[in-house]
Amino acid sequence: MINFTNTQKEELKILNQRLLKLQEKILKEAIKIDEELLKRVEDKNDLLDDYEIEFELIFILKESDKEFNEDDDNFITTITEYLKKVSKNKCDFLWSLDENHCDLGKTHPMSDFSHSWWFHCLYDHNHLSWEDMLRIGSFWSDIKVTYQYFD
């Protein structure tokens, strides 16, 4: 297990907070898009039959990283999420803003604060090391809507 310095822990907490802020924005936007498209699908006069909402979050190296190359994309990892609600009556996204997604165990040095879903995904689903998480500088995100029409 890594021995974190106070500075490293603070950097990781800041990364978590940045991701939580982005999650709030993306969730609001996804709900808005989902509600609008669901109305269209239910409208018999609209040609739209179905839709998909996907989200891609790309993590980029800090410019100060020794491996940063300004002629490269400098991607560290990517998270892809499906953002269409499963049911009309409630929000059924995989993640929630008010839930602590930390599953490290109480003795882990990074378990003393609430983890956002994407912070959790970095170490648990993407298997990014804590050292590599500290290399993240910026991130880029896209919401992609696929409109589906059936014959």
Outline the structure in words:
The chain has 151 residues and is an alpha+beta fold. Helices cover 33% and strands 22% of the residues. The chain contains three helices and three strands; from the N terminus they run αββααβ. The chain has helices at residues 6-42, 117-125, 130-133, and strands spanning 50-61, 75-82, 136-148. The protein has a three-stranded antiparallel beta sheet with strand order 2-1-3, with helices on one face. It is elongated and about 60 Å long. The mean pLDDT is 91.
Radius of gyration: 18 Å
Distance between the termini: 56 Å
- The rough form would be described as elongated
How many individual β-strands? 3
Main sheet makeup: 3 strands, antiparallel
Query: For the largest beta sheet, what order do the strands appear in spatially?
Result: 2-1-3
* Average pLDDT reading: 91
Structural class: alpha+beta
Spans with pLDDT under 50 lasting ≥5 residues? Answer: none
